[in-house]
Amino acid sequence: MPKALYDIKEILANLPHRYPFLLVDRVVALTPWKELSAYKNVSFNEPFFQGHFPGLPVMPGVLILESMAQASSLLLSLSSRDFPQEIPQDLKVVDLAGRIGYFASCDKVKFRRRVEPGDRLDLAVSFLRLGTRAWKVAGAATVDGQKAAEAEMTATF
After folding, report:
1. Nearest-CA neighbor of 128 among 66, 72, 65, 62?
2. pLDDT tens digit string along 57-113?
3. What is the C-alpha separation between 18 and 110, in angstroms, rounded?
4. Is the terminal CB of the chain with fewer CB neighbours within 10 Å at N or C?
5. Is residue 122 part of a domain?
6. Is residue 106 part of a domain?
7. Residue 45: which CATH number?
8. What is the C-alpha separation between 99 and 80, in angstroms, rounded?
9. Whole-angstrom Cα distance, residue 121 to residue 57?
C-alpha cells in the first residue's frame, strides 16, 4: 500500500467539507498541476447506507462523483499551496485563500460497478483544462482495479 502523501489533517486543512460529507481519506500521489490519486475507505457506518438500500447497501453514485470532485479540489489547492513555483507559465492562478470550488457540470458520467461497505474507493483525477475562474478534470473511481465510475467534471470558484 502506498504511503500517504497527505493525511486526513492535511485534507481537512485544504477542504471545507466535514463529516458526514468529507469523502477523501488519503492522498497517495500528487503530480503538481497535473494529477492526483487518493482514496476513500467505505464503511458500513456511513449514514447513507441506512436508506440506500436496506439489505443491499450501495454507495450512491452522486457521492462517488462528489468524492472525485473533492479529489479535484485537493489537486488544485495542494498544487497551489505547495508548488506555486511550478504553475504553468500560461496560467494566472487567483489566490485560493477562502475560496470554495462549486460543481458547474458533469459530463460523460458512467457508473460501472457497485461500491459497497468494506471497499476502498480509489480516486484518480487529472486536469483537462485549468483557467483562472474554472477548471475541468477527468476523474475515475475504482475498486480492486475495477472501474466503478468515471466522469469529466467542471468546477468554478
Report:
1. 72
2. 999 999 999 999 999 999 999 999 999 888 887 777 777 777 788 999 999 999 999
3. 27
4. N
5. yes
6. yes
7. 3.10.129.10
8. 13
9. 15
The CB density around residue 28, as the number of other CB atoms within 10 Å, is 16
**2 within some domain:** no
What's the Cα-to-Cα distance from 93 to each of 42, 133, 157, rounded to whole Å? 34, 8, 12
> In which domain, by residue range, is 63 found?
8-156
Lookup: cell for 48: 447513507
The pLDDT tens digits of the residues spanning 53-73 come to: 999 999 999 999 999 999 999
The total number of structural domains in the chain stands at 1
Annotation says 52 is catalytic? yes
Question: 34 CB contacts (<8 Å, ≥6 apart)?
Answer: 126, 127
Q: Which residues contact 41 (CB under 8 A, 6 or more apart)?
A: 25, 120, 121
For 126, which DSSP code? E
Q: Which of 17, 28, 32, 52 is catalytic?
A: 52
Cα 3 to the chain's mean position, in Å?
Answer: 18
Amino acid (1-letter code) at residue 138: A
Question: Which residues, in sequence order, are CB contacts of 55 under 8 Å at separation 6+?
Answer: none
